Amino acid sequence: MSTGNMNLTLKIWRQKNNKAKGGLVDYKISEVSPDMSFLEMFDVLNEDLVAKGEEPVVFDHDCREGICGACSMFIDGRPHGPKEGITTCQLHMRSFNDGDTIVVEPWRAKAFPVIKDLMVDRTAFDRIIASGGFISVNTGNAQDANNLPIPKVQADSAFEAAACIGCGACVATCKNASAMLFVSAKVSQLAQLPQGQPERYRRVQSMVAQMDAEGFGNCTNTGACEAECPKGISLENIARMNRDFYSAKFVSEESI
Predict the structure, then answer these.
(1) Distance of alpha carbon 39 from alpha carbon 44, whole angstroms
(2) What is the pLDDT of residues 41-65, one digit of tens each?
(3) Given 1.20.120.530, 3.90.180.10, 1.20.5.320, 1.10.1060.10, which CATH number is that of 122-251?
(4) Inter-residue contact 93 to 82 (CB < 8 Å)
(5) pTM to 2 decimals?
(6) Which of 191, 186, 182, 190 is nearest to 219 (CA)?
(7) Virtual CA dihedral for 104, 110, 113, 119, nearest 10 degrees?
(8) pLDDT tens per residue, range 149-170
(9) Which end of the chain, C or N, has fewer beta carbons within 10 A?
(10) One-character DSSP codes across 172-198
């Protein structure tokens, strides 16, 4: 851990689009404050590149508060970098040392094609959600909080599943590029609440079918997804989704 300003070497993946050949390009950056976030360090790098008349590095970001899941970077062989339970925007440069060489790459998955440099297209997740990750009822006015009693254990489990921010780290770290952790979290957060029961089995069938159609790989239970998830989404959600998926075959098989 560094306490003073640092000089670093960055090896950054540069690629014009998903059809072009990409490669790692070396950049030197100096006087990096340990209090900078990783994305702020990239801002400084890009300012230097623009000042030199060079093209800045394209990377995805939005809230910079660990909420939106946009900051998808594979840093030194790990999604979101060396720290656990945080996103790239929450990673600070004090996690590195003066003189370090840092390798930064985009998410690697067939279903996440590179748009440019470190930015990938994750609209496959949006299509999975659109296929069934919702409750199609007329809600009207919000009900009183205690109108639908839900056991605390069940409510807590649904809340923990809903913490998934859809960043794609689970896909990026999985050797099969599986999206099972993401899909199971979105299935589980609704399957455990009363409002999600009417469409429970149709939902799981539709979302799994869309996941397969997008080209994500199969789950082989290595647990890498849970280990690298910045929100600590549990593998228990995958087990729950599998149970619902197979139950749907016997209980209410539907055309999807």
Answers:
(1) 9
(2) 999 999 999 999 999 999 999 999 9
(3) 1.10.1060.10
(4) no
(5) 0.92
(6) 182
(7) -30
(8) 889 999 999 999 999 999 999 9
(9) N
(10) HHSTT-B-HHHHHHHHHHHHTSGGGST
